[in-house]
């Protein structure tokens, strides 16, 4: 009998792990109808000292739940930050709209970024006609220093991170020496108007990988309002 049994073909020889996995995937309730198999399954390599497949499944679901909760918390934090940023931008916009001239608009922009957005330094260079208004941020369009900003003005895209020394000097002027990192926002409203700079003492606050959605919105608002007051020939 023993020799004959040994010569019988193994009915499971043709089955591979993929076939078993596919079957169980198609019949997720299989073990509910064959509970006696649970005692024969070996799960220690995958889930430690688990006593049953159900216990293992509960553990997996619990881990997934922790991951989902963490992700949800991150999304809530981001949503609150975005709401706060939108509120601060709205407040700054109202301050800018209340400006009666270019001087008041520039001061409102700088103070708003300092107070509401915790900017360590705010720089601004505007392209206009020097002498029409006593605003030191205005330079003539043929000012040689603007060459350092030509590529930025042409692209119309904010840049974040380390900027060149020439850009730092023209935008931040006397505060240039303490700017560790910065974002430069080109201003345009039908024509190039200049560049707004937000600087930080922290070299890592502004970096190339950060988003620019808020910066673009800020630039659009500032440009539209400053254009109303900016003299140009």
What is the compact description of this entry?
By secondary structure, this protein is α+β, with helices and mostly antiparallel strands. It is 49% helix and 13% strand.
The CATH architecture classification of the largest domain is 2-Layer Sandwich
Count of alpha/pi helices: 9
Q: Got a strand count?
A: 5
Rg, rounded, reads 32 Å
Total individual domains: 2
H/E element sequence:
HHHHHHEEHEHEEH
Q: Identify the strand order in the major beta sheet.
A: 2-1-5-4-3
Relevant CATH superfamily of the largest domain = GAF domain
Q: What level of helicity do the residues show? A: 40-55%
Mean pLDDT value: 83
Proportion of residues in β-strands: 5-15%
CATH topology of the largest domain: Beta-Lactamase
Gap between N and C termini = 109 Å
Most strands sheet: 5 strands, mixed
Question: Structural class, please?
Answer: alpha+beta
Structure write-up:
This protein is an alpha+beta fold and 233 residues long. The chain folds into two domains: 14-88, no CATH class; 98-229, 2-Layer Sandwich (Beta-Lactamase). Helix content is 49%, strand content 13%. It has nine helices and five strands. A five-stranded mixed beta sheet has the order 2-1-5-4-3. The longest helix has 45 residues, at 53-97. It is elongated and about 95 Å long. It starts with a helix and ends with a helix.
List keywords for this structure.
single chain, alpha+beta, 9 helices, Beta-Lactamase, elongated, 233 residues, 2 domains, 5-stranded mixed sheet
